[in-house]
Amino acid sequence: MQLPSDLGIDAVFDHTAVAAPRIRDLLPIYRDLLGGSYLGGGDNTRSGYRTLQLRYPNGGKVELMEPLAGSTFFDSFFELSRGRGGVHHLNFHVTDIHAAVARLTELGYRLHGLNLSEPRWRDVFLHPKEAYGVLIQLAQPGGPRPPEDNPTLDELLAGRGRRGNGIPSP
């Protein structure tokens, strides 16, 4: 598909998400070896995963993800990666998610996971078949979370993070 030079979605790269069966297995690399500082995280009980973000000295970010107990959210992803995981998606922030969705739809892109109703985080995914095998998330964040809504890393891994299910990470 030939694209015009200006798609008009005002996308800015925010982070790379890496998924594995256990976040604890990712921390020695992304936190300890590479120097990421814990920013925060929580559970998405609707979809079935736990996530946390690390920030690096240059301002770059990596999101670490794992399935919640009993979740099938990552099953096909882990099957493709022989159970180990890997890069799950790239995240880009947009200033107007509705305009981005309209423009991408107009250009004929297949979108999925459309979430436009939550004020704190609105997002949509560009299908990997449209982006040469890469899942791209476009998101319009709604502003910073209050400090009391940000668990410590130990609380998060113990299942007591934001929207935590009470079940510790494996």
Sequence-ordered SSE layout with sheet pairings:
Layout: E1 12-19, H1 23-33, E2 37-44, E3 49-55, E4 61-67, H2 75-80, E5 86-93, H3 97-106, E6 111-115, E7 121-126, E8 136-141, H4 153-157
Parallel strand pairs: 1-4, 5-8
Antiparallel strand pairs: 1-5, 2-3, 3-4, 6-7, 7-8
Describe the structure.
It is built from 4 helices and 8 strands. Strands 2-3-4-1-5-8-7-6 form an 8-stranded mixed β-sheet, with helices on one face. It is globular, with a radius of gyration of 16 Å. The termini are far apart. With 170 residues, it is an alpha+beta fold. The mean pLDDT is 89. A hairpin with a 5-residue loop joins strand 6 (111-115) and strand 7. It has one domain (12-157): 2,3-Dihydroxybiphenyl 1,2-Dioxygenase, domain 1 (Roll). It is 19% helix and 32% strand.
Summarize the structure.
By secondary structure, this protein is an alpha+beta fold.
Let me know the CATH homologous superfamily. 2,3-Dihydroxybiphenyl 1,2-Dioxygenase, domain 1
Number of strands: 8
Mean pLDDT comes to 89
SS-based structural class? alpha+beta
Approximately how much helix is present in the residues? 10-25%
Describe this protein with a few key phrases:
single chain, 170 residues, alpha+beta, 2,3-Dihydroxybiphenyl 1,2-Dioxygenase, domain 1, 8-stranded mixed sheet, 4 helices, 8 strands, globular
